[in-house]
Please model this.
Amino acid sequence: MLLKELSEARGVSGNEAAVRELLLKAVENTIDKHCIDALGNLLCLKKARKPAANPAAPQKVLITAHMDEVGLIISGFNADGTLRYEKVGGIDNRMLLSKQVLVGEKAVPGVIGYRPIHLIGRSGIEKVADMSQTAIDIGASSRDAAAKLVQLGDYVTFRTSFEVLTEDGLRTAKGKALDDRVGCAELAEALEGEYAFDLYAAFTTQEEVGLRGARVAGYSINPDVAVALEGTVCDDLPKERDRDLSPVTELGKGPAISFRDGSVICDRRLVTLFSETAEQQGIPYQYKRGAVGGTDAGALHLVREGVPAAVLSVPCRYIHAPVSIVSLQDFDNAARLLKAALTKLEGGLEA
Model:
């Protein structure tokens, strides 16, 4: 299962090579050419397989999904052999305590250590943890011993395996980096289709630290239309009864179509294209409620003279955490909707 391989691959922002290798192997028989640019983006081209019915339809369509995940980077050694670290991407400090991690290319196992509850006291329990007092414990007994196993600048990923939790109902699965390995797997599947335009697939780098790969890829390709695929916020757990808070997305309700997020106001024609296609094809979908987070579309829509852009997402519970949960049903429906919308896009965008 490609999604399992991608989820378990280690690829913190700036270190996406392992993910890129998996994706190139997955798509190499469905594309006409590819290249790896200076930022490490994997740029693939599938040329038009049939003539365009509408001369005014887009000729170059770009779909992106980012390869990178949030994680940590080693910034120093302590005398007792533990490791200092910094965050890469947006991670809530509370998610880090006592988590298992893998450090560097050798995948050295470790634990993010913190004082036990017995030593914190009641006042300490009621406060947010002081992250300056945490460290990664790899079992080394000294600075020199740790330095033989780990180097400064080594990346750190969460030690999380992918697992299908249930085949009933929502068909849920858990894993790390589902933001945005769900989008990567979805895009790989879309490349199996045949379209009346040149389809560019950009598996991008460094999205979690500023949409950097997408900015470079968009400028290079200069598309007529762009779509970003994402794993997005899902906050459908129970809330206080006296507060009427609609979740941003809900698990099992289908892929999420965005009107906007924190980085882009989506092209309304593309929003309509996705929603109408879903209804015509009988694919469940939902709108993303709330302009939270940013996506590759934030960089893509500002390329050169501007590009119509949209975002299609798979809801992910516990996003930017050591483990997330998705509905495989939502994932399958997102892949179906993307391919169907691309086929409909061959007729052009309505004014």
Remarks:
- The two ends are 40 Å apart (CA to CA).
- The chain has two domains: 2-69+176-345, 72-158.
